[in-house]
Design goal:
single chain; mainly beta; OB fold (Dihydrolipoamide Acetyltransferase, E2P); 5-stranded antiparallel beta sheet; 3-stranded antiparallel beta sheet; 1 helix; 8 strands; globular; binds zinc ion
Length: 161
């Protein structure tokens, strides 16, 4: 039945309840490899395209630029460079974060794509495009196969150590 075009969202009524629905998503072949390397080895893997030379992080099965199959997996990072940064002021429930969480797009050394993750050990004033950072990992016993097994990215010392 088509909706009445005069109906406005404020006129809708809602009721609360729960639905007994569960779902299970698999990582798929490429993400399985990427997340397993993080969880089991604290290494970040990318997939390099033999056709155009682009390295994607996370690795994937096919190059989105030239459509070649990506079969060459390489370790990237853990150091990288901030390409974009933002401050997040509200959590998923709308509660204010104090201080705001700093999030960045990091281009890991050896990769052309970026990884979105949180920053740590840096102030908003110092979190700038071009800042050199490195990934650091949760303790091995706490890793679950999540992107949060990378605890975050923190500034590298100026000399890169
Ligand atoms: Zn390619």
């Amino acid at each position: 039945m088509p909706l009445d075009p005069a109906l406005h969202a404020r006129d809708l009524r809602t009721w609360h309840g729960s639905m007994p629905v569960t779902s299970r998503y698999t990582y798929g072949p490429a993400n399985e490899r990427f997340f397993r390397a993080i969880k089991e080895e604290a290494r970040i893997l990318g997939a390099r395209c033999g056709g155009c030379g682009v390295t994607y992080v996370p690795g994937r099965l096919f190059c989105e630029r030239c459509f070649d199959e990506l079969a060459d997996w390489i370790e990237v990072g853990p150091a990288g460079t901030i390409e974009a940064v933002t401050a997040v002021h509200l959590d998923l429930d709308g509660a204010r974060l104090e201080p705001p969480a700093l999030m960045a797009l990091v281009r890991l050394d050896g990769a052309e794509s970026v990884l979105y993750h949180r920053l740590s050990g840096v102030t908003a004033a110092d979190a700038k495009i071009g800042l050199r950072v490195e990934a650091f990992f949760r303790p091995a016993e706490d890793r679950t196969g999540s992107i949060l097994d990378i605890a975050g990215f923190r500034p590298l010392d100026v000399d890169g150590t």
